[in-house]
Amino acid sequence: MDHRTPKLAVLIDADNASDKIAAGLFEEIAKIGEASVRRIYGDFSSTRLKGWTDVLPKYGLLPHQQFAYTTGKNASDIALVIDAMDLLHSGRFDGFCLVSSDSDFTRLAARIREHGVDVYGFGEQKTPESFRQACHRFIYTENLLELPNQEQVEAIKAGAKKKLKEAVPLLLRAFGQLEDDQGWAPLSALGSRLAIMAPDFDPRSFGFRKLSDLVRGTNKFEVEQASGGPLRIRSR
Predict the structure, then answer these.
(1) Are 219 and 164 in contact (CB under 8 A)?
(2) Residue 184: phi, psi to the nearest 5?
(3) Residue 13 belongs to what H/E stretch?
(4) What confidence score (pLDDT) does residue 52 get?
(5) Are 114 and 89 in contact, with CB atoms under 8 Å apart?
(6) Taking each helix axis from N to C terminus, what angle separates 150-176 and 211-218, rounded to the nearest 10 degrees?
(7) What is this structure's pTM?
(8) Separation of alpha carbons 34 and 20, rounded Å
């Protein structure tokens, strides 16, 4: 059985990603695999990208400078796509991490998946659905930010509670596809099914760190763990 750590190519669109996500981004990527390639694209002569320039050494990011010679033409996007295709055809990578909120990368994500390679998207909640759905998994960068104060924490929790009702129908649909004759389903299987049904599903978007906490928070499921066994759930 192959236990090799997946090799990942991390490609960041600096024009459409905040430098404030850097710490959380690479912490999240480390859960998936090894960030073997770390490249970031943008016009680093611009003061607008100074934040990224300051953190390049800390995260071993290789900057690809793209001067904005004309308006309306995004040379950074083109460079990122060309490099992605070169890396894809090298056959050296198990997955790609595309960091952007730009729908222009939808076709790139779909093309990579057509090769049987996983695509992990990272972008803001405003990211168009087309790009989110083209990814194997999509992580909202708002969930990767360090919260600076308690006031913001409470505001996010309040918003998450309102969104919690939106999670229930999806959880019930996924559960309905998995329950056994006794009405139980493994929590781990639920997580896998949710990832397929909704690539951008993330318990953190609803104010919970783990799926088990989210399931309990809905009050729609019983959660049980037999002696030494995995968690399983049943609809109330």
Answers:
(1) no
(2) -105, 155
(3) strand 7-13
(4) 95
(5) no
(6) 80
(7) 0.83
(8) 21
- Give 128's contacts (C-beta < 8 A, 6+ positions apart): 103, 106
Strand partners, 223: 233
State the Cα–Cα distance between residues 199 and 197, nearest whole angstrom: 7
What does the block give as tokens for 129? Answer: 């659905």
Helix (H), strand (E) at residue 110:
helix 106-114
Quick: pLDDT tens for 167-210: 889 999 999 999 999 899 999 999 999 999 999 999 988 888 89
Handedness of CA 65, 42, 143, 152 (dihedral sign): positive
User: What CA dihedral angle connects 163, 165, 166 and 170, to 10 degrees?
Assistant: 140
Determine the residue type at 80.
Answer: L
CB 101 within 8 A of CB 125: no
Reduce the secondary structure of 40-85 to three states and give it as a string. EEECCCCHHHHHHHHHCCCCCCEEEECCCCCCCCCHHHHHHHHHHH
Helix (H) or strand (E) segment spanning residue 80: helix 75-90
Structure tokens at 103: 């729908």
pLDDT at 118 over 80: yes
Close Cβ partners of 192 (under 8 Å, ≥ 6 residues apart): none
Q: How many CB atoms lie within 10 A of CB 187?
A: 20
Non-local (6+) Cβ contacts of 137 within 8 A are: 118, 120, 121, 195, 199, 200
